[in-house]
Amino acid sequence: MRRAIVINDPLDVEQEISQLGLKLSIAQKVARAASAARASALEVDVAFTPGMLSHIHGNRHLRLELMPQGWRKGRFNNVESVINDELGIQVIFQNVDLACDLGHSPQAISGKGAGSRKLVEAGLQGELWEKPVNSQTLQKEEVSKVGVIPSVWMFCVSNDGRHLRAELSKPFNFDGAQFEDFSKRIFLLNEECSTDPTISIKPSSDDDGNSEFDVEVKVVKR
Question: What does the domain layout of the chain look like in residue ranges?
Answer without folding.
Answer: 5-218
